[in-house]
Amino acid sequence: MKAEAKRDTAVEAQxxxxxxxxxxxxxxxxxxxxxxxxxxxxxxxxxxxxARMAVDKAEVLLRQxxxxxxxxxxxxxxxxxxxxxxx
Length: 87
Known about the structure:
- By secondary structure, the chain is mostly helical.
- It contains two helices and no strands.
- Helix content is 95%, strand content 0%.
């Protein structure tokens, strides 16, 4: 009877170890998926920020370099291209 109880205890202990190992693997898998999702979100956020910064910088450069004379020339070129495309 003692041997059987000892054997049952060993079997139960192994079952608990296996169950704990499975749980740990599930937790690890879930954590890795969460990390990957956070990484994707961070990459998208960085890309959006870089795009906003590029647009802001381009706006500053345009405001600095686009004088009234340059703006008039740009407009005239645009109108000339429109006229060519209509004809």
